[in-house]
Amino acid sequence: MTSIVREADLSESHILTDISFAAKRYWNYPKAYFEIWKDELTITPEYIQNNKVCVAEVDGRVVGYFSLVEVKRDFWAGRVFVNAGFWLEHIFIQPEYIGRGIGTQLINYLEAMCRELGVDKVRIFSDPNANGFYDKMSARYLGESPSSIEGRTVSLYELDIN
Predict the structure, then answer these.
(1) Are 114 and 161 contacting, i.e. CB atoms less than 8 angstroms apart?
(2) Where are the domains of the chain?
(3) Which residues are registered as beta bridge partners of 5?
(4) Whether the predicted model's global pTM rises above the 0.90 cut
(5) Inter-residue contact 63 to 12 (CB < 8 Å)
(6) Which overall architecture, per CATH, does domain 4-160 show?
(7) Which of 14, 104, 132, 148 is the most buried (most CB within 10 A)?
(8) Which tens digits make up the pLDDT trace of 11-66?
(9) DSSP strand E in the chain: where?
(10) Maximum CA extent, the chain
């Protein structure tokens, strides 16, 4: 399957939001989690404008995306410590396209973009269901971090850009 990766258009924010929620629903999380994640999973035109957001398209249909965010200084987000640097904040694939190489294409595009920008590493808070994907992408596991969901952790990874 061939897909193209390109920069997201501001008008695609609602499509990216739908993909975010659909991809999270794929893992059968409790309904209550989605209320907590609502703001985090909602992509606005301003978000696209202020960050590096790229989409994967198959036959003219957007089926996935990622966002690269630059954090200017260390900060605490509730119980979560976030280091300054570049972060892969989102990478979501439409459920029917999971396992078809779209995520790998997005990561390859991300790495090329980072090389152009002079970024040597990208940090990732990984949903537990995505750990195998980041392992396959040769990201280095750094440990566990508290999640926005009480009593739950997410994995912290670092992707070296060569």
Answers:
(1) yes
(2) 4-160
(3) 56
(4) yes
(5) no
(6) 3-Layer(aba) Sandwich (3.40)
(7) 148
(8) 999 999 999 999 999 999 999 999 989 999 999 999 999 999 999 999 999 999 99
(9) 4-7, 52-58, 61-71, 75-77, 80-82, 85-93, 121-126, 140-146, 153-160
(10) 42
